[in-house]
Amino acid sequence: MGKYFKKVVGEKCFLSPVNPDDFEKYTEWLNDPEISENMMVEDNIISLLKEKDILEKMAKGNDVFFAIVDLETEELIGNCGLHDINRINQSAVLGIFIGNREYLSKGYGTQAIKLLLNYGFNVLNLNNIMLEVFEYNKRAIRSYQKAGFKEIGRRRQAKFFKNNRYDIIFMDILREEFLEIKDGKGAIG
Questions:
Q1: What's the total number of domains in the chain?
Q2: Per-residue pLDDT tens for 154-175?
Q3: Does residue 100 form part of some domain?
Q4: Residue 25 is assigned to a structural domain of this protein
Q5: Model pTM greater than 0.85?
Q6: Is the C-alpha dihedral spanning 76, 77, 82, 84 positive or negative?
Q7: Gene3D superfamilies this protein is in (predicted)?
Q8: So what's the pLDDT on residue 54?
């Protein structure tokens, strides 16, 4: 088990700076077809060395990446982050994945998204956070909608998967929309 720090804490999970020592767990998850098919990396071969390098760059870079950790057990669940952060335009792109299958469809992803949005809007002073999601990833779309994201457009038939063509859906949320959720404090829990 890696070493985690409670940087942003929710009711079910907390966000901790990414720990490069978790590269074996991430490599296992990213090579699991059920997990990777919903990500932009499903056609990549992720080796232990490659994933360790990626995590080290994430830990040292200017983008914001967090491990998602179960609050009760301190078990690593997945990760999330904000990348392509533009301080002038106050915008960023959100990415998330739950790698541990036991935590899928149990609200951990939605809570991690809300914690990350809180950090992005209230700590980093962002105004717009967007994301991309494949049309067939219904579980993620529901989670994003629960966190307050709205569809803003589609790139039609831009994803070829299992002999079918799917849209890539673009969604975003504004700071004012986030702050309207839950008594003007943002969707924390």
A1: 1
A2: 999 998 888 999 999 999 999 9
A3: yes
A4: yes
A5: yes
A6: positive
A7: 3.40.630.30
A8: 84
